[in-house]
Amino acid sequence: MKLLVQRGEEGFPEPPEDIVEAAKVAPDHWLNVVDQHWKPEDGQAPPMWARLGRWRSDEHGEIVEWEHNPEYRPSPERLGWPKPHGEVDAAVQRAATGYGPEIAVVEALAGTEVAVCVDEEGRPARSEAPNGTTAVAVFTPGAELPEGQEMPAHEVMHVDRLLDQLADGEEVLFLSSTAPVAHLVDPAELRDMGERKQPATQGAAEGGAAR
C-alpha cells in the first residue's frame, strides 16, 4: 500500500465531509484522523496505533493529500464487528484489537455465569487451544449466533463451579459470539480476581440492606 497519496492519484480516498469543512478553516495543515473507539484521558494525545492517518490541506483550504499510518490498529468498530454481547464479550473484543488490557477480560469474567461447552456425557468439553493448551470453551449465556451457525451443546453455570472441574494446566477459552476472536484465561487469575471482587460485592449488598 502506498502511504502517501495525492489528489488525482490512484488510490486517493474521498475525504469525509467533516474533514473537508475542517480544512477550510485550517489551510496548510495536517489533519489527523483518530479511531472513534479511542478515548483520551486528561488531554492525552492519541497514540500512533490509534491514528488511521492524516489529511493535508493546501494554502486554499483544500484537501490535497492523504497519508496512511502503517502503525494503525483497527478497533472492533472499524473492523465491522457487531456490538458485543455483554461485558465479557466487549472486553475480549477490545483486548483482541489492542484497545483494552487483557486483565479486563479476567475482571469481567470473574464471578459471573458462563455457558460451558459440554461433551456427550454433559461434562465440560476439552479441546486444544491455538497455542496447544488444553482448554474448556465458554461463551456468554443467551448469546445469539450468526444465521447458519448452530449453538453448541452447553450448560450455564457459575464460573467458580467450572474452575473446580479443571485439572492442572487446563485453561478457560472464552469464545466471542459476535467477533472471530477468542481469549485464553488462566484459572488462577480468575480465582484471584473473584476473591478480590467478592468483598466489594458483599459490601455493596450490605450497604443496600442498611438503607
UniProtKB/TrEMBL annotation:
Native source organism of the sequence: Streptomyces albus
InterPro entries cross-referenced by the UniProt entry: T7SS_assoc
Region (Disordered): 190-211
Protein name as it appears in the record: Type VII secretion system-associated protein
